[in-house]
Known about the structure:
alpha/beta, Rossmann fold, 16% strand, 5 strands
Amino acid sequence: MHQKERTRKRENTMKALVINGPNLNMLGIREPGIYGTETYETLVQICQDAAGDLGFDGVEVFQSNHEGAIVDRIQEAYGSVDGIVINPAAYTHTSVAILDALKAVSLPAVEVHISAVEDREDFRQISYAGMACFARVTGEGLQGYAHALKLLAEKLAK
Ligand code: DQA
């Protein structure tokens, strides 16, 4: 076992990381007919409230418009968080790098999408990141993140 992982195991706390990909910082402005009128700040609040209710000791909500920054954040999660909720946004459908990063750290991960991607364009039908996730939540709006954190908490309790 890697040193960072050993230290993490001793801490006996439950920490979650929520990762949001490009354009999710534009929630409230961006295509409200698809993504709603609530802002990114509301999304952060929903994640913090849900994580508290579910017994997580901490949650970080991270957003970046840059693929490499998302890869970096996933790598940094190794040994410091217990599980990941990820909405890679457009990178869902393109990024083998994000898939490989999730596989590299091998942390339990849940894929989440605000919209029902399965009912949208053909190019949204492939999910690379999803191949490294044990569950997927779609079409539940911002509350889908609370659902995804619940699935993660249940998985970590096992
Ligand atoms: C999204 C769906 C993606 O296809 C899209 O590129 C996004 C948001 C969602 O949350 O519904 O940016 O991940």
